[in-house]
Give the backbone structure.
Amino acid sequence: MAILVTGGSGFIGSHTVLELQEAGYDVVVIDNLSNSTEKSLKRVEELSGKPVKFYKIDIRDREGLEGLFRQEQIDSCIHFAGLKAVGESVAKPWEYYENNIGGTLTLVDVMRQNGVKNLIFSSSSTVYGDPDRVPVTEEDPVKKCTNPYGSTKAMQETIFTDIQKADPEWNIVLLRYFNPIGAHPSGRIGEDPNGIPNNLMPYITQVAVGKQPFLRVFGNDYPTPDGTGVRDYIHVVDLAKGHVKALERIKAGCGLAIYNLGTGKGYSVLDIVKNFEEASGVKIPYEICDRRPGDIAENYCDASKAEREMGWKAEKGILEMCRDSWNWQKNNPNGYAG
Ligand code: NAD
Ligand code: WQD
């Protein structure tokens, strides 16, 4: 029996496929390659020494999924596939709802028709909106999101919750990721954004290799220690390992379970710049700019529920995250393009 990984050639997916293989699982990956390349999986194969079964299938393609379930013995699904750019989602809401919601509904329908009712879902800290207090716990309210991308995550959580309530044979783990950064320490797989990066760490690494002239710091007048935004950055390898732990919860028959995956520590934009400079030895020039619309002052989590119930805890600190992000970018200045 294999684990189906949707979106498995992407940033978090590729790291998770590697951790799954290292933990002894058989893995089947599907991806439409809209935001990734199969090269990431070739590198996973190099690292694990095991082949990765890959099918280029879109999660909205019902016939494609039905064929896949006929061909492969699937036991559980880890569902990463989706569009994830916040700004783009504001400009293209229909595309985001159609891909993320439509695709998820099709995937889940084909799964249940094949008697596969175990699923781990990539949710996001974005479902907490602008939280009333930090650190946020899983009991804190899910709030209205400021962008369609965030709304798709909150809606998908609702869909999964309702499906599991109606049919308790489902085991569903909703993992709320905080801010994933870093890369595999080998420097062979990592984050490879298209065009100009939206997120902080890939932007910083592009400044470091000279692809961007300087970092724009979006606001220094937030009510935080140094005025810049505070987030809970988590190493992507720790995050990937969280999925392996979540599979054990599924096997134990967890019903519906929700976990924050973060370190529980908040770092400001300037903290990240300082740690990156220390880890890489490269100076990052920056300018203070206006706040970015939709941004919040701070968000970091209480991750103790994942430790209590799954025995999972983030192990890698901020310097390691910066070192591995840099190692990936330095060795692959143009990502998988060479
Ligand atoms: P990514 O873009 O690298 O990976 C997503 C993958 O899904 C890509 O390979 C893309 O080609 C694929 N995909 C998109 N639509 C598809 C479709 N219709 N059919 C098949 N494949 C499709 O992004 P990532 O950072 O690895 O994120 C993985 C998941 O985690 C996403 O659901 C994302 O929303 C969620 N998430 C990411 C972050 C983050 O900051 N990176 C934070 C919280 C949650
Ligand atoms: C981090 C901090 C910025 C870029 C987004 C999504 C969220 C989740 C993770 C998927 C903030 C500041 C950034 C730059 C900057 N993704 N910044 N200059 O905004 O916390 O979350 O990614 O679910 O849904 O909203 O992450 O990396 O964009 O920003 O000053 O060039 O860095 O203002 O304080 P964010 P981020």
Remarks:
- Residues 200 and 279 are 16 Å apart (CA to CA).
- The longest strand covers residues 118-124.
